User: Fold this.
Amino acid sequence: MTSTDCVLDVRDFRMDFGATTVIRDLSFDVRRGETFGLLGSNGCGKTTTIRALLGIYTPTAGTLLVEGKRYEPGSGVRLGYLPEERGLYKKEPVLDVMTYFGRLKGMTRSAAQTWSQGYLEAVGLSSHAKLRLDKLSGGQQQKVQLGVTIMNDPDILILDEPTKGFDPVNRRLLMDLIEERRRAGATIVIITHQMEEVERLCDRILLLKDGKAEAYGTVADVQDQYGGQAIRLGFSGVLPTSTHFRVVSAETNYAELELTEGSEPTPVLRELLDAGVEVRSFDATRISLDEVFLRVYGAEASTEGDATPRQAVA
Amino acid sequence: MKRHNFGTVVSFEFLRTVTKPKFWIITLAVPAFLAIVIGLTTLGAKATNSATNNKFTSLTFTYTDPGHWIVPEVAKAMGGTLAADPAAARAAVQAGTSEANFDYPSDPGTGAITVMAKDVGLVDSAKYAPYAQGVFRASITAKIGDPALARWATTTPTTDVLTYADGVQSPGFMGAIAPGIFMLVFYLTIMMLGNQMLNVTLEEKENRVTEMILTTMNPATLIVGKVVALSLLGVLQAVLVSLPIFLGSRLFGTAFDLPNLDLSQVPITPLPTLIGFLLFVGGFMLFSGLLVAIGSVMPSAREAGSAFGAVILCMFIPLYALSLVVSDPHSVIVQIFTYFPLTAPITAMLRNALGSLSVVEAGVVLVILFATAAAFLWLGVQLFRTGSIAYDRRLNIGKALGLGRKAA
Assistant:
């Protein structure tokens, strides 16, 4: 990988708040044009990492670079950021707020106005342009927030819990916008708990646990690291005991089997048939990221629910 | 600081305020309210005077005068008759058959004129005392024989005092007006802009918009841009409030007995005026920086309000020691007020206007003010950077500034 391929580069990052170390010895990079997932349970340091990367926090140690240098607003990097805590100037008209942010991102007033009007037209809010933001519904405000995030066609898009609080319509809109930016060659970083989204969108992922990198690589690499191949089996009969697989879950006519190291699907199928099991479906696949997430975070993740992640600074 | 974003912030903050009808209504309500109050008061006073004057002309009364101060011809001409029987004269008033009776004392220097009269209402009954005094005054004038002499005997002549320092005529009290005006402007500025300054950073925090802002511009750009925009709004408000008052006094001053605002008579003393201006600027910057820092720490406008009260108290506490500042500017307490940053602006501006602040002292105060203002602004920016992300909580300043952090 050449240095120009590396858009975000984090090396030996550590972050302390008082006596508490939130992140320790974290290193990873995000390559140009890829969609990268930053995953982890609540309070593991995902948002802190992004805030340090974007210059909001000063790191205790390490280097965090965006396009080869420390990020500074107005440095020329076209970056769109959708923070987890969302909000805009609620008492101002929609078009004025969008124009303001467009200008802050380097657009001229007329360009920002034109872009905003086009976006509002596209998302069905053109008649609301002169209304105050707090007169819009929650879903409509989310659309405006998304518009502000992608103004000026960002080359880097950082989305912190992007679907949190979004209704299905806006979730679809967000996915379309991500896809559009992806096709345009933008580098996208997604911080999320939604493993389905990660499997569908991300090229590579980083799992953070207690401020340290727990797993890092392509989605397939991480799946391999935490169980490798799995078989989703539709069957009748009694599953035999085997050295080739372990039963992860079993219901009356369905089971998920995890292959032991070095095992292949074909001998497993033969063993099942030899044992008199009537096989109706046999789907060899990788272990799901949901399962990986549960294995990494275990009870910690299951007790957190969908609560807002704790902020790092008390 | 990016000039482009600085201008964007200033114009956004300025325009979004002046394009709201609320701004104009609140601002213009001040001169409108003043005009209504002055108009009503003047018209009311004129009506009262008119009514009182009209009813004086037909008063008839009896009087007693054991000291022989009253000239009978004068009293008669004004409707008076010497009471042959004082007790009967008073009884007649009580019975309602006589309008009034005045008992003049033997010695006006120690005794008072006693007036018994028919009650004609709260306002109209006020006519009796000046009328009784008028009879007395007219009688004394008649006794002296020269009206002009009599007038000067009861009038204190005006005095013009000319003092000189280093061979140059001192401006006197008028000389305090130009440098002292900055204290008034400072007071008005804090009263009008204080709460808005406090809300400079609170708005971003309460609207959860900080992170979007911090990734698009430097926090110093945002804060300084907002402070500049607010200052411009303050100037606009000052013009909008004072212009109608000034024009009103010029156009309708005579009709409404308003003081004539002739600023050409105010002498400008260059050095004290310059020092007054610099003290105002330094004080304003100090005040802005401090309020921005408070706003960054507090989670909501309500909680910030209590801290704001403490700042205002600190700023204006020297006025409680006004007599000491005027009479003994070198006393320990005045010296402390002069050099303690929060009390320095008012104390120094007051002393500067009164001429008791030397150039050296002014220089030291200015250094203290500008240095403290810069420190507060820096602190405000640092606290905003992290404090405004602690959306719902009061910020721990030590943690926000990285104090107590482990070594890297």
Summary: Residues 303-314 of chain A have pLDDT under 50 and may be disordered. The interface with chain B takes residues 14, 16-19, 21, 51, 54-58, 60-61, 72-74, 79, 81, 83, 85-90, 92, 96, 100-101, 103-106, 148, 311, 313-314 of chain A (CB under 8 Å). The CA atoms of residues 16 and 98 of chain A lie 35 Å apart.
